[in-house]
Amino acid sequence: MRRGRRSPMRRRRPKGPPPQHDRAHRALQRAHRLMENGDYVNAADIFERLARGAHDRGMLRQAPRLYLQAGRAHMLAGDSDRGADLLRQGLNIFAEAQRWPQLHQAGQRVMDELEQWGHTDLAAEFDGWLKGILPEKPEAYQHAGTPARRPQLPVHCSSCGGPIRADDVEWLDATTAECPYCGSGVR
Fold first, then answer.
1. Using an 8 Å Cβ cutoff, are 181 and 31 in contact?
2. How far is CA 114 from CA 18, 122, 133, 151, in A?
3. Residue 186 CB partners (closer than 8 Å, separation 6+)
4. Is residue 159 exposed (0-12), middle (13-18) or buried (19+ Cβ within 10 Å)?
5. 2-27 pLDDT per residue, tens
6. Radius of gyration from C-alpha coordinates of the chain
7. Residue-wise pLDDT tens digits, 58-98
8. CB-side exposure of 24: number of CA atoms within 13 Å?
């Protein structure tokens, strides 16, 4: 057989993401919908499975956010022990990678949410842990040089449906942020 020619029996691989990525993306969309509809138990299971998969594959940009979302879902479902464990896992990934600004921001949000849900003792525990792990100098974890005014982002990612918070995303350029869940560009 000549080089460069494909066997007529060999199937052509379709363009686009590999099938496992497509499956994970659909699961992520479903988990966000379940969360919005108040089905926290099922959302928690999906987020936790996605977080473990992302972590196992070394997807350390998405894994912590997925763990945090799984923890939130478990907390809202009434399973505060499992929820706290998953919140810790998400924050620990930021700490291990020394992603101090993300750790600080996510940690503050976790503590605020725990307070809102009536878990003041747990919020105080997270506060103590954060104070012990964050660098002593705030400039190490505060966003330096970030313009005060950024373009307004949509409330949800158009690709996966995840919640988008302008103060909690990584900006790719002056007008585009990265979805913390699926990595899509959000404008």
1. no
2. 38, 7, 19, 29
3. 153, 154, 157, 158, 164, 169, 176, 177, 178, 179
4. middle
5. 555 544 444 454 444 455 578 999 99
6. 19
7. 999 999 999 999 999 999 999 999 999 999 999 999 999 99
8. 20
Place of tokens 């003041």: 120
Task: Give the whole-angstrom CA distance, residue 30 versus residue 124.
Answer: 33
Collapsed DSSP state (helix, strand, coil) of residue 184: coil
Give the pLDDT of residue 142.
61
Tell me: pLDDT of 162 over 80: yes
Structure tokens at 159: 């690709």
Interstrand relation of 185-186 and 177-178 (parallel, antiparallel or unpaired): antiparallel
CB 64 within 8 A of CB 90: yes
- pLDDT tens-digit profile of 105-154? 999 999 999 999 999 999 999 999 999 999 987 766 665 444 456 788 89
What is the predicted pLDDT for the residue at 78?
97
Looking at domain 21-144, its CATH architecture is Alpha Horseshoe (1.25)
User: b/e string for 17-40 if b means 16 or more Cβ within 10 A?
Assistant: eeeeeeebbebbbbbbebbeeebb
Instruction: Report how far residue 141's alpha carbon sits from residue 157's, in angstroms, rounded to the nearest whole number.
Output: 26
Task: Pick left, alpha or beta for residue 78 (phi over 0 → left; psi -120 to 50 → alpha; otherwise beta).
Answer: left
Q: For the chain, what are the domain ranges? A: 21-144
